[in-house]
Design goal:
By secondary structure, the protein is an alpha+beta fold. The chain is 16% helix and 32% strand. The radius of gyration is 21 Å and the shape is globular.
């Protein structure tokens, strides 16, 4: 066999192997959005300076950032990946270290292990954290989640750090918030 054929065959094998690795690795890289110290880049799940991100994470369905203002107030910045629905609301820290936001009768509890959405009737859904940046917290509240059809639409709310009484809607979803794919 000539050297030319061996080199050509070797190049073809390498190209096929690289293509397979790229195909496997590309969805993972594309599915996990860029982050920095303020949360998710190009996303509602991000803190705006001078606020700082005390925690942020992603589940298969959502992204969330917990922000802290220089005055010590907390804010919840969340987005549902499937449709870009956003929620920005005031938040607090519980005694167990979890972060809690309430909006329109729905409670959003963020721990290092899960995002739990509940209302007065119980847990609506429990989303395990896929990625979390922040302090390790106690386990998320237990409960049996309802069917996915029970998901409430996340209402738009204005950031509490600028205008607590304003109800101006948020702009359309940002690029990192659209997709619906799992990450």
């Amino acid at each position: 066999m000539s050297t030319y054929l061996r080199c050509t065959r070797r190049a073809a094998v390498i190209a096929v192997a690289c293509s397979a690795l790229f195909a496997i690795g590309a969805p993972l890289a594309a599915a996990d959005p860029a982050t920095d110290a303020l949360g998710f880049v190009n996303s509602t799940a991000r803190c705006a300076a001078p606020n700082t991100a005390v925690a942020f994470g992603s589940t298969a369905e959502s992204r969330v950032a917990i922000c802290k203002s220089p005055a010590g107030q907390y804010g919840y910045h969340g987005v549902r990946v499937s449709d870009g629905a956003k929620l920005v609301a005031s938040a607090s820290v519980s005694a167990d270290g979890s972060f809690v936001a309430k909006q329109d009768g729905v409670t959003y509890t963020v721990t290092s292990s899960a995002l739990v959405v509940s209302d007065s009737s119980g847990v609506i859904r429990r989303e395990p954290m896929v990625s979390f940046h922040g302090p390790k917290t106690a386990q998320a509240p237990a409960g049996s989640p309802q069917t996915p059809a029970a998901k409430p639409q996340a209402p738009a709310a204005s950031p509490t750090s600028t205008a607590p009484s304003s109800t101006a809607p948020l702009p359309p979803p940002l690029p990192a918030e659209i997709g619906g794919g799992k990450h």
